[in-house]
Write a structure and sequence with these properties.
Elements: H1 2-15, E1 28-31, H2 32-41, E2 46-52, E3 58-63, E4 70-75, E5 79-86
Antiparallel strand pairs: 1-5, 2-3, 3-4, 4-5
């Protein structure tokens, strides 16, 4: 009975923490051509993934294998905004290369 009570208590207390929430975050935007050229020329990052969501927003992940840097952009014809950047990444997909 103590184990059941402990599990129920754990489920009840963690439920509140699993609720979605919003967070404000500053993002940097620039002209799409300028942003992509800068990432390619200055940081030597190359696109490894491109996606489009249901609202037709475009996204690209660019990385530099040698330095480990990466940038995740949301973009359209006019502007590109960096949603995230970093200095280390790991490819976790181990399936066949297409």
């Amino acid at each position: 009975m103590k184990k059941i009570t402990a599990v129920l208590l754990l489920l009840i207390t963690t439920y509140g923490y699993s609720e979605p929430y919003t967070k404000e975050k500053s993002i940097v935007c620039a002209d799409t051509t300028t942003a992509l050229e800068s990432l390619i020329k200055v940081y030597k990052e190359k696109p490894i993934w491109v996606g489009v969501d249901q609202q037709q927003n475009k996204f690209v992940l660019v990385t530099n294998k040698e330095t480990g840097t990466w940038t995740f952009l949301q973009f359209n014809d006019k502007a590109a905004c960096a949603l995230g950047t970093g200095v280390a990444y790991e490819i976790v997909y181990t399936g066949p290369i297409i």
